[in-house]
């Protein structure tokens, strides 16, 4: 942003005036900030994050079953990567709409590099599973019993299970002119079967497809009475392999091989829809049958069958992943529920509740006393639910407004909103139907709330409502007071036990007025209203972040920036950080996933360090810290440093002004910066190196430190 542009923007943004940035003179040879070598490819950076998750499966400081779950999470992440990111690149090429990112890589080039890297990572994943995790589980008396290892008693039990549970629901499909290749559901487990002989009608098909029933578990526990102790698990695929001949009586099964097709699962909705909910319902049906983007096949499948499948799905060798093991590793997450081994999983803990809340019967009284900042999952999410429950029952509460992105139709929050509406309060829910992979659940949520009398709004077409806001209007002593919750994460109690997120509860008048105006913009129509304290996209958040970064650049070596994002891809933001680094400002970026910024490059980003924290909990907090020459300004936000968050979504960044809370946030950030074992440092070449404690240094795992600090547990 130029100085003149920043000055103009400060006038447009009204009350949120920030001093215009100081122009930073170039030092030495001026660097071209537009040069492609200054940026990493976002898709390859995302693959790097998935790889860091996979490496947790080798970290023996995690319990064994949780290490297996990390291996499964890698599979789940890779599924979404192909469904969305790879599918998007293929769509660009299909329709001739190739776009080049700041890194200068064309879609075809990116797909080639993605294939190379993904094949390496997936090969390593199966190596970890087969040669590390499964042997370690064997030593813990947890066995994945293969067909060749079944005892006669186990084989008989499997036969009975097949005949009683599998055979009645499986539908084998012979391939011939009257039975074309079936349309297989995205990510479903299937088998391609080689046959010899003629069926009852005299047909010689030679080939059949067997879709595994989606209603059946992929992993089944063998009864203790047919085993010699321990936990014994058998794969559904093994059962189908063993009894494939019963699906084709009178014919010889020459081979049975599992495969799985990943399809394009991104939804495309036009901006001029008359009925978003109806259009979305239609798109959800098509998601299951989008274009194929990846084929996973057992590595013992004959080459002619592999080529047959590739041709059928319109894929090439680049899209083929031949794996040594089950093609659907995500389903191995079921192990945690099938074996009772608490010694091999994370120990439980009780999230704490601040004394300020425990000592007060009323959440309203506690918030009036001073603002409250909670860090989940270390601190309980229940105060947020309690606030809504109390508001629903409080006769002094007149209205409740809330945004819902990922919540769940059966959550306590939804029940509280429905209860408030039934009691006659004005309740408005702004539901984002397009929350990826939660669309169907959000449609159900909307119907349930509407039945209870809640006014349901679907946000703004073309701009996902990603902000997390609750506004409660309460009559107190003859006037109306607004109570507000603002968060960095979703209103989902289950996620609040797994994700790190901040919840901020306040009755600050200016913030309450700002949130009220934001709801007016979401539910009504009109020009953007003047906001006092919050930054909000797509209007002011982007320009404000740039201005704050430029201000720190103006302080030179006294400048201090700490940003915690889930991802950083927005080029203007990256350029501003480069300029601040060149001016001497010290910058630490804590970025869990994608980072397109290249750190620690001489003359470009000498003063920028980037680290990623990977651990028991998914890092999800977004915090912006600016030193402001000794007068720190700190914001929490729903927004990452990505184009979609800053330019095409409804997001909020809210200031934390209470000195004690500012100090608390800085302490939390410093805890992450001090991590020497769960943190990975991004290198100038794009690789990540995991930090390790020095010989004379103790392990300092930020999440464990926060867990002990806030709950007293380790």
UniProtKB/TrEMBL annotation:
Q: What cellular-component terms does GO give this entry?
A: polyphosphate kinase complex
Which residues are in the Polyphosphate kinase middle domain?
153-334
Keywords, A to Z, come to:
ATP-binding, Kinase, Magnesium, Metal-binding, Nucleotide-binding, Phosphoprotein, Transferase
Q: Which residues bind Mg(2+)?
A: 406, 436
The record's listing under SUPFAM superfamilies reads: Phospholipase D/nuclease (SSF56024), PHP14-like (SSF143724), PPK N-terminal domain-like (SSF140356)
What post-translational modification information does the record give?
An intermediate of this reaction is the autophosphorylated ppk in which a phosphate is covalently linked to a histidine residue through a N-P bond.
Q: Which Pfam families match?
A: PP_kinase, PP_kinase_C, PP_kinase_C_1, PP_kinase_N
Residue sites binding ATP per the record: 77, 499, 592, 620
Q: What class of enzyme is it?
A: transferase
Q: Which cofactor does it need?
A: Mg(2+)
One MF term from GO for this chain? polyphosphate kinase activity
Domain Polyphosphate kinase N-terminal, chain residue ranges per copy: 39-145
One Gene Ontology biological process? polyphosphate biosynthetic process
Question: Which InterPro entries does the entry link to?
Answer: PP_kinase, PP_kinase_C_1, PP_kinase_middle, PP_kinase_middle_dom_sf, PPK_C_dom2, PPK_N_dom, PPK_N_dom_sf
Instruction: State the family named in the UniProt similarity comment for this chain.
Output: Belongs to the polyphosphate kinase 1 (PPK1) family.
Describe the task this protein carries out.
Catalyzes the reversible transfer of the terminal phosphate of ATP to form a long-chain polyphosphate (polyP).
- Report the protein name in the record: Polyphosphate kinase
Originating organism = Marinobacter pelagius
């Amino acid at each position: 942003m130029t100085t003149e542009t920043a000055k103009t923007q400060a006038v447009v943004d009204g009350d949120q005036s920030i001093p215009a940035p100081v122009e930073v003179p170039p030092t030495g040879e001026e660097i071209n900030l537009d040069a492609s070598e200054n940026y990493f490819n976002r898709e390859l950076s995302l693959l790097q994050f998935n790889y860091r998750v996979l490496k947790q499966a080798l970290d023996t400081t995690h319990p064994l079953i949780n290490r297996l779950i990390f291996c499964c999470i890698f599979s789940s992440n890779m599924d979404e990567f192909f469904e969305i990111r790879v599918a998007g690149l293929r769509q660009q090429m299909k329709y001739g709409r190739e776009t080049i990112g700041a890194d200068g890589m064309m879609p075809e080039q990116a797909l080639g590099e993605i294939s190379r890297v993904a094949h390496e990572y997936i090969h390593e994943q199966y190596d970890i599973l087969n040669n590390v995790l499964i042997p370690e589980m064997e030593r813990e008396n947890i066995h994945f019993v293969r067909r060749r290892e079944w005892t006669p008693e186990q084989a008989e039990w499997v036969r009975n299970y097949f005949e009683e549970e599998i055979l009645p629901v499986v539908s084998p499909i012979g391939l011939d002119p009257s039975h074309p290749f079936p349309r297989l559901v995205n990510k479903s487990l299937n088998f391609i079967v080689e046959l010899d002989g003629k069926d009852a009608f005299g047909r010689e098909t030679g080939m059949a497809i067997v879709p595994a029933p989606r209603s059946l578990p992929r992993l089944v526990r063998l009864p203790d009475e047919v085993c010699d102790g321990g936990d014994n698990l058998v794969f559904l695929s093994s059962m189908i392999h063993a009894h494939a001949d019963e699906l084709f009586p009178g014919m010889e099964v020459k081979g049975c091989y599992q495969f799985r097709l990943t399809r394009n699962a991104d939804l495309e909705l036009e901006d001029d829809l008359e009925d978003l909910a109806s259009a979305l319902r239609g798109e959800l049906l098509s998601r299951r049958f989008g274009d194929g983007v990846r084929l996973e096949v057992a590595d013992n499948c004959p080459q002619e069958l592999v080529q047959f499948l590739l041709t059928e799905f319109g894929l090439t060798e680049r899209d083929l992943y031949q794996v040594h093991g089950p093609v659907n590793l995500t389903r191995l997450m079921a192990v945690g529920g099938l074996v009772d081994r608490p010694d091999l999983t994370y120990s439980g803990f009780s999230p704490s509740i601040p004394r300020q809340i425990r000592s007060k019967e009323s959440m309203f009284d506690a918030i009036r006393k001073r603002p409250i900042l909670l860090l989940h999952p270390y601190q309980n999410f229940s105060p947020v639910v309690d606030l809504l429950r109390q508001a629903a029952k409080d006769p002094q509460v007149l209205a409740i407004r809330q945004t819902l992105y990922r919540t769940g139709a059966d959550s306590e929050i939804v029940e509280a909103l429905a209860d408030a509406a039934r009691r006659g309060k004005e309740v408005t829910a702004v539901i984002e139907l397009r929350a990826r992979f939660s669309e169907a659940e959000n449609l159900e949520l909307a119907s349930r709330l509407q039945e209870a009398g809640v006014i349901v709004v679907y946000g703004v077409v073309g701009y996902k409502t990603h902000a997390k806001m609750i506004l409660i209007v309460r009559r107190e002593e003859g006037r109306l007071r607004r109570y507000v919750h603002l968060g960095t994460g979703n209103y989902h109690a289950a996620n609040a036990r797994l994700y790190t997120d901040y919840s901020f509860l306040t009755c600050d008048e200016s913030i309450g007025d700002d949130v009220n105006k934001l709801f007016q913009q979401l539910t009504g129509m009109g020009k953007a209203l003047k906001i006092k304290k919050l930054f909000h996209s797509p209007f002011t958040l982007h320009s404000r972040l740039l201005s704050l970064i430029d201000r720190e650049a103006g302080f030179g070596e006294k400048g201090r920036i700490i940003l915690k994002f889930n991802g950083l891809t927005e080029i203007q933001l990256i350029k501003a950080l480069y300029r601040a680094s060149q001016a001497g400002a010290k910058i630490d970026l804590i970025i869990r996933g994608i980072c397109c910024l290249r750190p620690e490059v001489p003359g470009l980003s000498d003063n920028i360090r980037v680290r990623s924290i990977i651990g028991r909990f998914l890092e999800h907090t977004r915090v912006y810290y600016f030193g402001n020459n000794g007068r720190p300004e700190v914001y929490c936000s729903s927004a990452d440093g990505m184009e979609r968050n800053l330019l095409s979504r409804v997001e909020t960044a809210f200031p934390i002004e209470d000195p004690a809370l500012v100090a608390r946030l800085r302490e939390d950030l410093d805890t992450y910066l001090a991590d020497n074992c769960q943190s990975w440092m991004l290198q100038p070449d794009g690789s990540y190196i995991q930090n390790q404690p020095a010989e004379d240094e103790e392990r300092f795992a930020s999440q464990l430190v926060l867990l002990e600090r806030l709950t007293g547990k380790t």
